[in-house]
UniProtKB/TrEMBL annotation:
GO BP terms: transmembrane transport
Family to which the UniProt record says this protein belongs: Belongs to the binding-protein-dependent transport system permease family. CysTW subfamily.
Membrane topology of the entry: Multi-pass membrane protein
One CC-aspect GO term: plasma membrane
Cell location: Cell membrane
Organism: Mesorhizobium sanjuanii
The ABC transmembrane type-1 domain, residue ranges: 81-293
SUPFAM superfamilies in the cross-refs: MetI-like
Positions of transmembrane segments: 30-53, 87-111, 131-152, 164-193, 213-236, 243-262, 274-296
Full protein name: Acriflavin resistance protein
Main localization, broad class: membrane
Amino acid sequence: MTDLSLSDQAIAGKTAPPGEARALRLPTQWLGVAPFFIFALMFLILPTLYLVVGAFRNGEGGFTLDNILQLVSDPSISNSYWSSIKISFWSAIIGAFAGLAIAIAIVRGGLPSWTRSATLTFSGVASNFAGLPLAFAFLATLGRVGIVTTLLRDVLNINIYAMGFNFLTTTGLIAVYLFFQIPLMVVIIVPAIDGLKKEWGEAAATLGATQAQYWRMVVIPVIWPSFLGTVILLFANAFGAIATAYAFAGPTLNIVPIKLYSQMNGDVLHNPQLAYAIAFGMIVITGLANVFYIWFRTRSERWLK
């Protein structure tokens, strides 16, 4: 009886070895993420490599550094980079502080619960509201024949354009960008504020700390990495925006996305290789911004776990 059971076990071990059974299994767990990797390869990795290679080629296909050097030597291109950096920086800074104030108010300000849900719902929609609809909304509101401009002129006898107001400037573009920068800040920073543990405030109060000391020594150091990371993300978000800027002001603003569009599709400035170099410069700047964002995000998650 004992011999029979042992032989059965030996036969079972020979017919279905654990190693061979595992080897015959198909990697079905990768099927779910396969569309993501295919999409990233086709629409992100390969186009980026194509741009990088094209930035170092001339019209005949040979290797050259002239396109990269022209980013610095050509004043119109270098000025467009500085204009884009300035617009992105100020829209990110203003949007970050305004969004942080709104987030603190709806999370820890003692407001009714419906204000949080309403604000987050609006922020989720407004953070993705850009391009032609956003440009049209601002022009229809504060343009020369916009509804607010008309009401100020007809009702209050105030002509803002006669007073020197010009909406089609870098300052006007910053104001337009704030419409989606502030909601994006609210959406990203609210989880960081939610991560502040109630026990930290109770411990600070037990030790005799004032509310100002609690915010200065506990809250600000904890949310500071998340805040800086979000500022960098807002910078990258504004730096690469082209649809809103082009629909808002057309080719009149000298910023990098419009300069890139002119080099790709313009009749006078058509130079695809230089356009690849301009795109390469944008990739470098936004890539560095995202690296710093990931780094700050990792630091903030240590406190919020």
